[in-house]
Request: fold
Amino acid sequence: MRRTPVAAVVMALAVTGCAGAASSVPRAAPTCDHGNVLILIAQSVPSAAFVPCIAEFPVGWTFGGEHIDARSSVFWLDSDRAGLRAVTVSLDRTCDTTGAVRVPVEPDEAGTVRFERPRSLPPRFVSNRFYTFPGGCVTYRFAFRPGATFTPALEATSALTFFSRAKGVELLRREGITLCGAGVECPG
Amino acid sequence: MGPDAGPHPERPPHSSDEAPIGRPQRWREPVALAGARLSRRRRRPSGKPPPLPHELGVSGKLWVGAVAALVVFMVLLFTVPIGDTFDRREGQFLGWLSGIRTGWLTDAARFLAGIGAEWPNRIARWGVILVLVLFKRWRHLFVFVGTVLVVSWLVALIEYVEPRTRPLGVRIIGSWEGFSFPSATVAAAAITGIGVLYTILEPGKARRIGKWVLWALLALLVAADWYLAVDHPMDDVVALVLGVALPLLAYRMLVPNSVFPVTYRRGRSAHLDLGGARGKAIRQAVGDQLGLTVTDIQPFGQRGSGGSTPMRLTIAGEPERHVFGKLYAKTHLRADRWYKLGRTILYGSLEDEKAYGSVRRLVQYEDYVLRVMHDAGIGGARSYGFVEISPEAEYLLVTEFLEGGVEISEAEVDERVIDEALRTVRGMWEAGLAHRDVKPANVLVRDGHVVLIDLAFGELRPSPWRQAVDLANMMIVLGLRADADLVYARALEQFSMDEIGEAFAATRSVTVPTESRSMLRRMRKEGRDVLKRYRELAPRRRPIAIQRWSFRRIALTVGVLLGALILWGLLQANLESGAL
Reply:
């Protein structure tokens, strides 16, 4: 029967949701050991001295998605307690820290300057955190679902870290690859 | 019993033209067409192409090759360490290209890179969708949206499986988004462009020019992406193969132009073009398979036919004769499927609503019904058999051309015609046949005799309900041209009052063909309600219910609703993701 393969394909598409096109395909997570995603993020803001990455996924946290283009990089994490898109991380050339309070950085954040701008506290935690550094700025936007405690913010903070561009450039150089941007001039 | 015991009771005695055993039998010619020049029929040897081979074209074959090469390349990429070599060569090329960057060239390249941007593609895609909806080219629309979804999904999948950074070792001066392999912008522009070519532009000059324009635009886009160093050369090559080859193959195979022509001229799109390659194929097929030399092919009676492509064939001979041809293709098969699916959902299985499995079976069935009708002595066109135009795709049913026949709505309908028309229904009842589409266009009067045509919906051993509906529809057809009281009185000569009562108890608006229904409506406005008069004359009977409930009907309805919901979901997902 000729209808069978057609029906099978339709069913397969329906079941897998693959005909939902690009949006249904999983995206590569910017974990600190995923070279190509980190390089792409570095390419999006060539001046940035650091790129944000995910060091580990605490229990209950998953990668939500990413959008990387020629101007900035954004990725977000979902939490089973704090909700979908509980933390959105973005890398830009600059960011507006007006009204934010400067706070001391953690040891793995050396080389950056940290600012906090809480919008609301639990039961509906919403806050912006900024890390500024030469050539760039990383923003963590916390937006937890109502009723979520502050604990997921601590978990997210421990999950996220930075990768130094200088270190990346050096690692790539050893493989004969040139990552253009801060400190590295390229043709064109 | 010994050999001399006389003739076998079930075996007819040898006729005079029967060949003696041991000598080659001389086959009787299938077409009894007085005066027609009959030539020797030819069998198609194995391996020889059919009269109308499936079309893929030279470029289609080349693109199939490109897809195969792409698959091989992808396998090599994952299994053999060739990636580094490619990276180096591509880096060198882009580095060299960056050396020629100048102000005006950079401005031009940035402008040209916009060809692959989201907004022009979105506008073009929605433009295509709008035009296709406006011209009710649903099949093209389905294939267009399908290619956009599938290719977008494939691009995203490859990006995920083989995430590739933007070019390294060269300054990127253009805009980009996401991983570079394969180039999403080039693939998007290619799918849109191919969609415009194969769904909007008519074949011929417009499409030829369109192809050149598309290739020029794609070449400029690729050159701009290389100049700006946003893509590696291989990113664009693979995107072109995906964005051009897959949609091209989909259009060539699912909406071939010979079957689903893109045209803006008036006319029913259900009818196939009878000129060009198909015209030649029909001549060859009728010549080879029936031994008739076709000198001319003319569309005939297309207004009243949506389920096939009807035509009049002129046959060489002394004098020239005409035969009637009905060309069936996959498009008609699918129309039949949708029609039956719709009926099953709306009414349940009132009668056999199983769709035909192939075009061959559809034609075979009509040919058989015609022959049964002929054998039963019921007035109809005689079948000369059917010929194969394209295996499993197109078949032509060849029948007698009813020269001089006029539609009953234009003929004089006297008592003799009424009697003969009703006798035809009686004959069908007795032969176990139902026409299922008795309407003025299908009842001809030829030399004062009634002839039924178009047995595409005919059924053998139909339900009693359907036979009753045939009678009611024939009485309606006659009542449109003659006095209803007279028709009723003549019907009583051949049918019992109870049978006539049953016929009108089975009649509903949906059981009356559209043509008859609109004529009834017109007459009602003129003050003559034929159906009401019949109901007054016929004995009262409880109306026969036409709704039939079954597990199949419920499952089909749920399935269709579910399919519609999934489609709606997919559409929304793609609107959000920007694929559409």
Notes: Residues 1-20 of chain A have pLDDT under 50 and may be disordered.
